[in-house]
Amino acid sequence: MSSNEQITVAQLSRLVGRPDAPAIIDVRIDEDFAADPVLLPTATRRDYRAVADWASDYADQQQVIVVCHRGLKLSEGVAAWLRQAGIAAESLEGGHLAWRQAGGLTVLPAHLPPAGPSGGSVWVTRARPKIDRIACPWLIRRFVDRKAVFLFVAATEVEAVAERFGATPFDVEGVFWSHRGPRCTFDVMIEEFGLASPALDRLARIVRAADTATLDAEPQAAGLLAASLGLSRMFKHDLEQLDAGMLLYDAFHRWSRDASEETHNWPSARPVSEPRS
C-alpha cells in the first residue's frame, strides 16, 4: 500500500526537465545499481546509511524525491529522515523498477565528468555562444547535472583552461563532446547520455537545423536562430545570456513535449456579413 508521502511515476514524469523539477536522490544499493546502471534525470546517488551526514545538503530544496529499487524500505526511510530534518521529501512509488517498466527517461552516467569543487561537473567552451553552446548547458542542467558549471573563454584558450581547471571541453573541434558529421553537439549529448525521447528528439532536430544553417529542415529552426542571435546581442556577459537562454529552451522543450500539435489563429467574434442583394 502506498503512503501519502509518495509521488507516482506519472506525476514525476511531468516534472522532469522543468526548471522547478525536484531534486532526485538514488539510494539503491550497489548490487541493484550494477544490474541497471542508469539514473533518473539529474539524480545523484547517495548512501542511505549516511543520510544523517548528507541530509543538510538538501536543506535549500523545495522538493526532494528519493528512489530505491522497489520504492520500499530504503526510499521510505530516507524520505522520512529528510522530512524530520525539515526537508520536503517523498519517495517514488514503485521505485526505480516502476520507472523503468513505465519507460521513464533515464541517464547513462558513465560519461558524466567528475564533480568539481562546487559539487557539479565543470564544462568549458568558446565565449559568445549562439545555439549549441546554450542548448548543451540547458540539456545538462535540466536532465543530467543540476549543479553543472559552465566556463566561457576565448576559443584559443579552451584546451588550456580545460587542462588547468579540470573542465570538460565541448563544442570545439577535436574533443569528445563536439559535432559528429551532420550532427551537432546537442545531438551527441542526447546520444551519449541515453536521453532519447520524443520531445528531446524533436528539439534536437530544431537545434541541429538552427546550428548548421539548414533552416528549411525544421519550421521552428528560424525562430530559434532569431531568438538566439537576439539574445547574443542583448547580453554582454555570457552567463547572463545563458540564464536567459535556459528559459528559451524551457519553452521550446515544453512546446516539443506538450504543444507541437497546437495551432493559433485570430478568433473573430464578429458575425459574417450577409451579402447585399
Automatic annotation (TrEMBL):
Domain Rhodanese: from-to ranges: 18-108
Coiled coil residues, start to end: none
PROSITE patterns reported in the protein's UniProt record: RHODANESE_3
Gene3D superfamilies assigned: Rhodanese-like domain (3.40.250.10)
Protein name: Chromate resistance protein
Organism listed in the record: Bosea spartocytisi
Organism taxonomic ancestry: Bacteria, Pseudomonadati, Pseudomonadota, Alphaproteobacteria, Hyphomicrobiales
